[in-house]
Write a structure and sequence with these properties.
- With 299 residues, this protein is mostly helical.
- It folds into two domains: 177 residues, no CATH class; 120 residues, no CATH class.
- The chain is built from 14 helices and two strands, in the order βααβαααααααααααα.
């Protein structure tokens, strides 16, 4: 891949230190949302440099968290999620998505474990698997910590990082309401993604929501059907003159651009088809074959 990609360079601890000095949740949120902070600067890098940097960044986030610099870790995760709005090098978007979501997955696991550390009940101390925990397994202090994390995420102004960050900590809803709220939460998030206008950005955001949703409950289908139908609409956008001109500016034709989107659609289709009844599977395969007809010579 040629060209350069935007990546974050974390150059100062001052904002994180200010966040740790605050005694209220509002102070921490203000520190996270403040404009003009010097925690992050954006630089351009080659694809090879980007991969190396993002791999190291995953470890840096974990180290910041373990050093109790949780505001810094949150800021890093938010800034990384914002990178997924950058489509200046569309050919690199799929691997960029993988690298960024690995960082978000790390952040989600750290938050989940942090809530457990705040206090387990005697019943909770007997459990080991993440999917087994519920409100009855943690103390009120732990549930309050959980609410605070969702409040921080809800305070993110931009749509794309707000959705990605809520997906990353999605499993933490178990500490507040068990599994009962997952259908409504996933449905809400699936509709929020309709606010993303870029086909590439929207397609991969839907794939991440599908992955996070499948991790907590693979049997839920309504939100996945919404994602699948919206993916079809997204692909229809590629026929517009605006997107044709944009693809041409990156030396891509419609088929090549569709190839970039295809992995995200395939994953949503896989999640929707998992455990589905035969009529639904037949409908999905027919729709998929219509959009992606077999190529000659592919066997």
């Amino acid at each position: 891949t040629t060209g350069s990609i935007q990546m974050p360079s974390f150059v100062s601890n001052e904002v994180a230190q200010a966040g740790r000095g605050g005694n209220t949740l509002k102070a921490r949120v203000d520190a996270i949302a403040s404009e003009g902070d010097d925690l992050v600067s954006m630089v351009r890098a080659s694809a090879r440099e980007y991969v190396s940097h993002m791999t190291n960044l995953n470890g840096e986030l974990a180290r910041a968290w373990n050093a109790a610099e949780r505001v810094k870790a949150l800021k890093m995760a938010i800034q990384c999620s914002k990178l997924l709005s950058d489509t200046q090098t569309p050919q690199f978007y799929p691997p960029m998505f993988v690298l960024v979501t690995e960082i978000l997955d790390t952040f989600g696991r750290l938050v989940f474990d942090r809530i457990k550390e705040k206090g387990l009940t005697e019943q909770g101390k007997l459990k080991r698997k993440a999917e087994d925990f519920g409100p009855q397994d943690v103390t009120e202090e732990a549930r309050e910590t959980c609410r605070n994390w969702f409040y921080k995420v809800a305070s993110i102004r931009e749509l794309l990082p707000r959705v990605y960050m809520e997906c990353a900590i999605l499993r933490c809803h178990q500490f507040l309401s068990g599994f009962s709220e997952f259908p409504n939460t996933l449905d809400r998030l699936s509709h929020m993604l309709r606010g993303l206008g870029d086909p590439l950005v929207g397609s991969y955001a839907r794939a991440y929501l599908a992955r996070c949703g499948a991790a907590v409950n693979p049997t839920l289908k309504p939100y996945l059907r919404t994602l699948f139908l919206d993916q079809m609409v997204t692909l229809g956008q590629l026929e517009d003159r605006h997107w044709a001109d944009r693809m041409a500016s990156h030396s891509l034709d419609a088929r090549q651009f569709t190839d970039l989107v295809e992995p995200s659609l395939s994953f949503v289709t896989h999640c929707l088809g998992f455990g589905a009844d035969p009529p639904l599977c037949t409908t999905l395969l027919r729709d998929y074959a219509t959009r992606y007809p077999p190529r000659g010579g592919d066997g």
